[in-house]
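$ run holo --ligand "NDP" --emit tokens
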Amino acid sequence: MAVSDHVNLEQFMEGVKKRNPGQPEFVQAVHEVAQDIFEFMEDKVEYHEAQILRRIAEPDRIISFRVCWEDDNHNVRVQRGWRVQNNNAIGPYKGGIRFHPSVTESVLKFLAFEQTFKNSLTGLPMGGGKGGANFNPKGKSDAEVMRFCQSFMTELYRHIGPDTDVPAGDIGVGGREIGYMFGQYKRITNRWEGVLTGKGQEYGGSQMRPEATGYGAVYFLQNMMKHKGMDVEGHTAVISGSGNVATHAAEKITQLGGKVLTLSDSGGFIHDPDGIDQEKIDWVKHLKTVKRGRISEYADEFKGATFHEGRPWNVTADLALPCATQNELNEDEAKALVSNGCKGVSEGANMPTTLEGVKVFHDAKLMYGPGKAANAGGVAVSGLEMSQNSERISWNHERLGEMLTDLMKGIHEKCTEYGDQGDGYVDYVKGANIAGFKKVADAMLAFGVV
Ligand code: NDP
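-- output --
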């Protein structure tokens, strides 16, 4: 049977849009993958007949629930929580929990879809899921965050488990929130089990997990650069975000001899031409995780640095690492990076570049590592946390650091296998999409129609 007997890309996307009204982020994520997969599937009748892509783009299930909690003034507050279990063909659902006012079902569906391919790329046995709530932890007291997390878990616990679905952190969910949620899970079920990753080191968390996503994104960049005979050392970098991923990406760039010029948050960005060194990064970590302050305060603290509204992509640099959120780098900003001489982009965040921005990078043949490959280090070390919990063991920092380096190298190799265009250019988007898809698709074929 030829591909012409089946729907083409446009018809497929029309169907996706129709079935998912008002969910632009999800449609965007499916479109980005579908373009490559349609080309790859052209002569692969079995995938068409089994409707594999259509099935991957339809979550196994979406759980939506009410989360009630009481604020410090005794007002009853109501939020909406979700868990999107996208696909468990190759392992238990795995993916973070996001607490942010912008969280919608569309955002979580896009993240769970992306996560399916990302987890497959790591080579570890993990399916794809994502969850969250439209809760804003900013400005809330510790006690309010605790009550919210407990209420959230009071519903979520019945849908997850170490062999079913293992959530982790994401935007707005760090060590503090994971601790509150794990405590509530344990209290309700009377079981200590590896049901969440990103836990504290005292209670089953893996070393290297906090660093893994940011470090991994830089290792991916390093692999792309090595492939071209280049190195991070001596290069400048613009980074967005100032959370877990951004600060650890900045740390690794600095350790490798690069110079970080910017960090940001939703209020704007700081530009420090002297470079954001380790001491300054530690200050930002403290500002964001302990004081829960704003990045603008950096410019008051460090002479020579300036604060600007907007995003950092017009600052001239050799490298760019978007590490804040989705759709934070658009077509014009991508053009600005290219015309300012940027050589490589590695995405610490999920889908930070718009489809139009990706096309600019692609046309300029710039080294461009998409999030599903470049930021997979976080979930990879989460996978290692699951293994350590199951075996009741704990690997040390050094060993996990080596494992992370190897995993990122492996992911880079898989992307190159399917993305090498033969003219020295590697299309990492295509490579990641095809390599991630193939493993999940082959597992689904083995199961028959389920
Ligand atoms: P954090 O909550 O630690 O930090 C998020 C950062 O992004 C903050 O600086 C935040 O600023 C900024 N930000 C959030 N929303 C917006 C927005 N709408 N506009 C501008 N800035 C914004 O999250 P993480 O560092 O964990 O996550 C960052 C990205 O990395 C996300 O895309 C996440 O999905 C992805 N990721 C994270 C992984 C992890 O291990 N943590 C794993 C893989 C991917 P502000 O303080 O103003 O909100």
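-- notes --
The domain at 210-369 is CATH 3.40.50.720 (Rossmann fold).
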